[in-house]
Design brief:
Elements: H1 2-19, H2 37-46, E1 53-62, E2 67-77, E3 81-87, E4 95-100, E5 103-108, H3 110-116, H4 120-126, E6 138-143, E7 147-154, E8 157-164, E9 169-177, E10 180-189, E11 195-202, E12 207-217
């Protein structure tokens, strides 16, 4: 009876944890002093690929209702254009989207892309690219020898970035809205600051998107029709 009771308790605890969004502590818990916008912009520009780039990846997406796995390609055209294609096993669940700057231009089917990646700036961060602060955003930060911390705050939205240089280069990002954490990402980069793998977590939806990069083509040719809708 005790063994059965323990089993039931373990199952109940697992269900309870699965249904609750994970609790995350703030990425940056210290107060940041106002910083020079030009220095922040200079750092942001260094994260943008200098040439057209194609990133081929495997992905896993999971939330309370679905679990997707598959492959995809992200085509980046500097300074601010992104075509994102993805496909599940045997071509099932395929879709595509075009993003320019912080805006989705089109997505097919739209519900799949918005479910897979509901936060455009976090998708950019997951690919190792930081979007610049809005013109009216406040900028604060700290730059050290092996770590740089930046905060871009506009209205109720706050974006924190932490770039760490160690054995593995890492870009952490966090989006907060009215104080609550909406999304958190961690991207590992190689010596050329190209992404190798990333994870984006959406705590309120108990959702996670993981990308594992197979190949990065820094001499990719991107045809003009890539930016047009498939319809």
């Amino acid at each position: 009876m005790l063994d059965r009771l323990r089993t039931l308790l373990y199952i109940a605890a697992g269900l309870l944890l699965a249904g609750c969004p994970p609790s995350l502590k703030p990425l940056v818990s210290t107060t940041l002093a106002p910083s020079d916008r030009a220095a922040a912009m200079s750092w942001v520009e260094r994260t943008v690929p200098r040439h057209n780039t194609a990133i081929r990846f495997r992905f896993q997406y999971e939330d309370a209702h679905k679990h997707w796995t598959g492959r995809g390609t992200a085509r980046l055209a500097p300074p601010d254009s992104l075509r994102f294609d993805y496909s599940g096993p045997l071509g099932l669940g395929s879709g595509a989207a075009v993003v320019v700057g912080d805006s989705e231009i089109w997505a097919e089917p739209p519900e799949n892309f918005r479910s897979l990646v509901p936060a455009v700036r976090m998708l950019w961060a997951g690919l190792g690219v930081v979007r610049p602060p809005a013109p009216d955003a406040s900028v604060s930060g700290i730059e050290g020898q092996s770590q740089r911390v930046w905060r871009f705050a506009e209205g109720s939205d706050t974006l924190d970035y932490v770039a760490s240089d160690g054995t593995t280069r890492v870009l952490d990002a966090e989006w907060r809205q009215a104080g609550r954490i909406v999304a958190r990402s961690r991207t590992e980069l190689d010596a050329q600051t190209r992404p190798t793998k990333s994870s984006i977590v959406f705590p309120e939806a108990a959702a996670r998107l993981e990308l594992t990069v197979d190949r990065v083509d820094t001499a990719a040719v991107i045809p003009a029709d890539v930016w047009r809708s498939r319809r």
